[in-house]
Amino acid sequence: xxxxxxxxxxxxxxxxxxxxxxxxxxxxxxxxxxxxxxxxxxxxxxxxxxxxxxxxxxxxxxxxxxxxxxxxxxxxxxxxxxxxxxxxxxxxxxxxxxxxxxxxxxxxxxxxxxxxxxxxxxxxxxxxxxxxxxxxxxxxxxxxxxxxxxxxxxxxxxxxxxxxxxxxxxxxxxxxxxxxxx
Length: 182
Description:
Elements: H1 2-7, E1 12-22, E2 48-56, E3 62-67, H2 72-85, E4 91-95, H3 104-111, E5 115-119, H4 129-142, H5 150-163, H6 170-174
Parallel strand pairs: 1-4, 4-5
Antiparallel strand pairs: 1-2, 2-3
Helix pairs in contact: 2-3, 4-5
């Protein structure tokens, strides 16, 4: 990544991942006044949507898109969306080894000279900053949610991703410092 930043000072480093958002509320601990039990609505339907997300690890800006599936075709669709959001910018993609990040998605990246990719090590989800974005968004929006419709929950989740700056000191935490003059 140091080589990427030196070769492309205006480049963008994106950590990618996918998750499923279910209408069924996930429960977590919550503060409530003594004697006032909080209520969480439980939906009988199993509606869900998949979110693709890409975190700019330098700026904290999130690019997200809800899509019907997690597969190679949808991954390529999301990569096209990224290119639309960041035209003419060199992009380094950091992602896990999901099957849909190989094959057609890999070929798509190889066909675009401004894109390059790097895989995270196997079984190391904590290294992916996008995983931390999902956790933060779930804590803020979907845990104990009270949205009456799935569309409102989906929109609230999307709005949170688009309007929150996710600072993650990932570069400083995992990369050695660059020595000047060496």
